[in-house]
Specification:
- By secondary structure, the protein is mostly helical.
- The chain has four domains: about 1-70 and about 225-310, HUPs (Rossmann fold, 3-Layer(aba) Sandwich); about 80-170, Glutamyl-tRNA Synthetase, Domain 3 (Glutamyl-tRNA Synthetase, domain 3), CATH 3.90.800.10; about 315-360, no CATH class; about 370-460, Arc Repressor Mutant, subunit A, CATH 1.10.10.350.
- The chain has helices at about 15-30, 50-65, 80-90, 100-115, 180-190, 205-215, 245-250, 255-265, 280-285, 300-310, 315-325, 335-345, 350-355, 370-375, 380-395, 400-415, 420-430, 440-445, 445-460; strands spanning about 5, 35-40, 75, 95-100, 140, 150-155, 155-160, 170, 195-200, 220-225, 230, 295.
- The protein has a three-stranded parallel sheet with strand order 1-2-3, with helices on one face.
- Helix 1 packs across helix 9 (about 280-285) and helix 12 (about 335-345) crosses helix 13 (about 350-355).
- The structure holds one RNA strand.
RNA sequence: GCUCCCAUCGUCUAGCGGUCCAGGACGUCGCCCUCUCACGGCGAAAACAGGGGUUCGAGUCCCCUUGGGAGUACCA
């Protein structure tokens, strides 16, 4: 049987990191087995669901490269089918009408809690045969009260639930709309889902859903409940932890491949390896290698991976993104891909890379004070003057190597280390104490521009 | 409270009864490289939650405790 998995987000907010990983695992499983991956938007909560949120989620998945094979199914649109399923259950005696009021139910639960019991609907309407026309009712599932239901989970193994623990859940609200567990079962069955891969927060729903499949006479799919992602403090991932929306990672300059790789390694592993291309992930991923323990989100490791991907990337492939983060025009300046090439091994995000690239296209308007204090002495000026002379003399023979040699020779002659001149030059060129190697920086900037910046810098700093 | 899940370095993890005085990676700390920042190289510190079993032998199996987490809605 062809594997078919789905990702079923509710469009009530961002696509967050946890959801993204669930989607990733589901997607990887399908791709690994040559199956299909589809989407279902669980928009049955009309109050909280928005079209914008749906779009944000789809954008997030697209950015991560998690492609889906069919147009997304909107759960709300399938309401008629859900109701049909409830009617079937009603007819076959698997469901019944419950006329209990909220007050009544609250009171019942309070009592149970007071007795130290797990709050459960006690089934008081199960045998009610009258149908008072003027009273609102919900439809409940008549769940078996003896025996056990076992979830054969691909990640957790067999999980056994006593049926007595499971109460008669509501299938249809008093306003006639279907509830989550019913809708999920009806939809997963209708969509031909063979493997339900989802967060382990759904594990407790699973026995109920299995019972529904059985009552409905539908084939029960395989389940895989993957561990949740916790925040750095071990608690549930939330807004408190800064970035939770995948779009925030995109905006902060992370590469989709890096995030995918990081997310994959959160809970899944393949021996001692850390870096996996998308193709490798598809080839190697399987549920058997997924661990059972919740993982904490580690920003630093993501940063490292992002840096790895940044370093490996072809400069040209980064150009468009860098341009966006750069925010200044690049015409007239050095070739952007060359600037990227010298910066990619010294950046851990696209934002950092763009920050490091900016001075190539925009002469410094001020100089880092601390750096100036540290690197400019009385002895600095003659060195700079010599360097200017050498640059002027170079003319067309100018090159990074030539400039580098000039610096070295000037410093040797003065009996000082190269840093005594290289650092001041760097500050004058870039405005700060950090840049790519001085020879490369000079080469990219070009002789004229370099001279201009050095002269201007001397004017501004030497008189001050 | 009750039900369910989980438990190896700070973090992600390898380990699927003996080859583990527990391996890798991130991070941290040294040293090297060096014109800055990085990269890279070398090295170090750092873990089987506790207690009982089972077994010739347990990080690996079982139980308990402890600690985390999830669920417990006419939300999804």
């Amino acid at each position: 049987m062809k594997v078919r998995t789905r990702f079923a987000p509710s469009p009530t907010g961002m696509l967050h990191i946890g959801g993204a990983r669930t989607a990733l695992f589901s997607w990887l499983y399908a791709r690994h087995h040559g199956g299909e991956f589809v989407l279902r938007i669980e928009d049955t909560d009309r109050e909280r669901s928005t079209e914008e949120a749906t779009q944000v989620i789809l954008d997030g998945l697209s950015w991560l490269g998690l492609d889906w094979d069919e147009p997304p199914v909107f759960q709300h649109a399938r309401q008629a089918e859900h109701i049909l399923a409830v009617e079937q259950l009603l007819e076959e005696g698997h469901a019944y009408r419950c006329y209990c009021t909220r007050e009544e139910l609250d009171a019942m639960r309070d009592e149970q809690r007071a007795r130290g019991e797990k709050p459960k609907y006690d089934g008081r309407c199960r045998h009610r045969s009258d149908r008072p026309a003027d009273m609102p009712y919900v439809v409940r599932f008549r769940s078996p009260d003896i025996g056990q239901t076992v979830v054969r989970d691909k990640v957790l193994g067999d999980v056994v639930f006593d049926n007595a623990e499971l109460d008669d859940l509501i299938l249809l609200r008093s306003d006639g709309t279907p509830t989550y567990n019913l809708a999920v079962v009806a939809d997963d069955a209708a969509m031909g889902i063979t493997h339900v891969v989802r967060g382990s927060d759904h594990l407790n729903n699973t026995p109920r859903q299995i019972q529904l499949y059985e009552a409905l006479g539908l084939p029960v799919p395989s389940f895989a409940h993957i561990p949740l992602i916790h925040g750095p403090d071990g608690a549930k991932m939330s807004k408190r932890h800064g970035a939770v929306a995948v779009t925030e990672y995109r905006d902060k300059g992370y590469l989709a491949d890096a995030l995918v790789n990081y997310l994959a390694r959160l809970g899944w592993s393949h021996g001692d390896e850390e870096v996996f291309s998308r193709e490798q992930l598809i080839e190697l991923f399987d549920l058997a290698q997924v661990g059972k323990t919740a993982a904490r989100f580690d920003q630093q490791k993501l940063d490292w991976l992002n840096a790895v991907y940044l370093r490996q990337a072809a400069p040209a492939s980064l150009q468009e993104d860098v341009r966006r983060f750069l925010g200044v025009p690049t015409d007239g300046g050095p070739e952007l891909s060359q600037v990227i090439a010298v910066l990619q091994e010294r950046s851990k995000s696209l934002v950092e890379l763009a920050d490091g690239a900016r001075f190539f296209y925009q002469a410094p308007t001020h100089y880092d004070e601390k750096a100036v204090r540290k690197h400019f002495r009385d002895t600095t000026w003659p060195l700079l003057a010599s360097f200017i002379e050498r640059l002027e003399a170079m003319g067309a023979s100018f090159s990074g190597e030539a400039a580098h040699a000039a610096i070295r020779e000037i410093c040797e002659a003065a009996g000082v280390g190269m840093g005594k001149l290289a650092q001041p030059v760097r500050i004058l060129l870039s405005g700060g104490p950090v840049s790519p190697p001085i020879d490369q920086t000079l080469a990219l900037l070009g002789r004229e521009e370099a001279l201009q910046r050095i002269r201007r810098g001397i004017e501004r700093l030497h008189t001050a």
